[in-house]
Amino acid sequence: MRLLLIRHGQTTSNLGHFLDTARPGPGLTDLGLRQAAALPRALAGEDITALYASTLTRTQLTAAPLAAERGIEVRIRDGIRELSAGDLEMRADEEAVRQYLTTVFAWPAGDVARRLPGGEDGTEALARFDAVVAEAAEAEEHGTVALVSHGAAIRVWAAARARNVTVDFAARHSLDNTGVVVVEGSPDSGWTALSWAGTAVPAVTASGAGDGGPAGRTLPGPELGPATDHPTT
Question: How many CB atoms neighbour CB 110 within 10 A?
Fold first, then answer.
């Protein structure tokens, strides 16, 4: 099957660079609404047979124009909501951003027991996302399914599950609002990423510059120098 992993449109928290992961979350800005309205045309070549969105308001608003244009319902699932920031919720300072990113990108690197204070660990986060993917695969075994989710959730899941997406690649490559990661495969055979924000993904990924955060900014770390901006979810 083919999965289109779509990040939601722009929110006010994106503009403020906040770690905003709690339900129900903000709606879309005027730009975010225009981005959502542009999705049907951007995905005109995709034969989408099912459409999912998370329990956060911004993904449902992003999915709505696509659902209306295709005449399909939006299936709301908590499993594809954003990775919880826990006690870091609504912070935008570099220390919080670094702690959040370092933790969530440790999960696809194998340290799934690592947990943010007040948040979830990698086993929990990946399991809930996997459950929605498995549901979609069972219902649409040979179809194309769109999942409107969040920047960190998409990038971390892709790094953990797509055989050709390394943690370094996912941490360094951006996913702007309404950016799409396309993967093919199945829960049993595994997944291969075909494209990332419109660019083909090679069979083996390597590191490269990006400008995204959990939702689009690069992972700050000692090897990269200080973060130049804060991530938003």
Answer: 11
